[in-house]
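PROTEIN DESIGN WORKSHEET
SECTION A - STRUCTURE
LENGTH: 87
TOKENS:
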């Protein structure tokens, strides 16, 4: 599976968000602000997971089908299960 620059950039932004949360904790910032930033980080991670699955679904389907003989419906169900599991 190939991870493009868009995905890498998203992950770098998330990394920056989490470093910011750590800094906020070290500076004893208000709990609401920390939770707000953690929620934003979690949302960004969820969106990145969705992007990875959607971007690579066709490629993964072809690769899995070639190696395991699974049909498209089974592969799509597995992709959806990955998304649900990530929550």
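SECTION B - SEQUENCE
RESIDUE ASSIGNMENT:
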């Amino acid at each position: 599976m190939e991870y493009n620059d868009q995905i890498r950039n998203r992950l770098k932004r998330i990394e920056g968000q989490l470093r910011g949360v750590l800094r906020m904790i070290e500076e004893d910032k208000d709990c609401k602000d920390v939770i707000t930033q953690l929620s934003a980080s979690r949302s960004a991670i969820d969106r990145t997971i969705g992007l990875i699955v959607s971007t690579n679904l066709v490629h993964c389907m072809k690769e899995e089908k070639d190696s395991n003989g699974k049909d498209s419906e089974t592969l799509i169900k597995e992709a959806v299960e990955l998304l649900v599991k990530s929550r």
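SECTION C - NOTES
The CA atoms of residues 46 and 87 lie 8 Å apart.
The chain has one domain: 5-85.
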